[in-house]
Amino acid sequence: MGNVIATAAVSLDGFVADTEDGVGPLFDWYGNGPVEVYGTDPGRPFHLSQASADYINAAWPNVRSCVIGRRLFEITNGWNGVPAVGEHVFVVTHKPPTDWPFPDAPFTFVNGIEEAIAQARAYAGDHDVSITGGNLTGQAIAAGLVDEIAYNLVPVLFGTGVKFFGEYVGPQVLLGNPRIVQGDRVTHLHYRVIR
Questions:
Q1: Mean pLDDT, to the nearest integer, of 28-49?
Q2: How confident is the model at residue 1 (pLDDT cuts 50, 70, 90)?
Q3: How confident is the model at residue 168 (pLDDT cuts 50, 70, 90)?
Q4: Which of 15, 23, 74, 146 is the most exposed place for a label (fewest CB within 10 A)?
Q5: Is residue 147 part of a domain?
Q6: Cβ atoms of 45 and 169 closer than 8 Å
Q7: Residues 6 or more apart from 33 whose CB is under 8 A from it?
Q8: Residue 45 placed within a domain
Q9: Do 154 and 26 touch, CB atoms closer than 8 A?
Q10: pTM for this one?
Q11: DSSP H helical segments within the chain, as ranges?
Q12: Residue closest to 148 by CA, chosen among 120, 179, 121
């Protein structure tokens, strides 16, 4: 079975977005390099430094399913029905949309983080599951469902906004030593959760 990996681009003070859900310079590293990299959508290229491209190219092909929250789904419009990474997206929501214009897209709407991760794991098989930062990450860590944390640290301070771990309330979690990759305007820190 693959791993559940919590991931996001994060400010030095721990935010994945500002109070208006804007990412500002958090995503600058996705477009500041010479190496073209693609997720699932062939129409959405990223231009990374060589170090970031090597890191991403080692991780993204292993991701088969993703778990996101309704908030991210709404902000991105579900990437117009094309998962950013992987083959299938599981959206945690209490109320699935009834008017989304992509009803045949590989998106499943699930009530609850535990059920969403269970379905995402079953779909992924031996491949990895990606879960985005925010309240979902905090809930998944509190439930003991996260195996790794991929923290893409961007040198900016937001001061306030959406926290990577949401409003995490749970047990202390010990992480292993990070694998560190220095990109351009980002440092990739990859941790294993110690159980």
A1: 96
A2: confident
A3: confident
A4: 74
A5: yes
A6: no
A7: 47, 48, 49, 50, 52, 53, 183, 184
A8: no
A9: yes
A10: 0.95
A11: 50-59, 70-76, 113-124, 135-142
A12: 179
The residue behind tokens 């879960």 is: 131
Cα–Cα distance measured from residue 162 to residue 144, given in angstroms and rounded to the nearest whole number: 22
Alpha carbon distance 119, 89 (integer Å): 10
On the CB side of 20, CA atoms within 13 Å amount to: 2
d(CA 85, CA 123): 14
- Could you give the residue ranges of the DSSP H alpha helices within 65-143? 70-76, 113-124, 135-142
Q: Return the structure tokens found at 66.
A: 């993703």
Q: Tell me if 154 sits within 8 A of 29, measured CB to CB.
A: yes
How far from 184 is each of 12, 26, 34, 151, 187, CA to CA, in Å? 15, 12, 11, 15, 8
Q: What CA–CA distance (Å, rounded) separates 110 from 100?
A: 15
Count of structural domains within the chain: 1
- Residues above pLDDT 90, as percent of the chain: 93
CATH number of residue 73's parent domain? 3.40.430.10
* Phi, psi angle pair for 24, to nearest 5°: 45, -130
Cα 130 from Cα 8, distance rounded (Å): 10
Q: Is 38 domain-assigned?
A: no
Q: Which pLDDT score, from 0 to 100, does residue 170 have?
A: 83
Query: CA 11 to CA 16: how far, in whole Å?
Result: 7
Mean pLDDT, the chain, rounded, equals 96
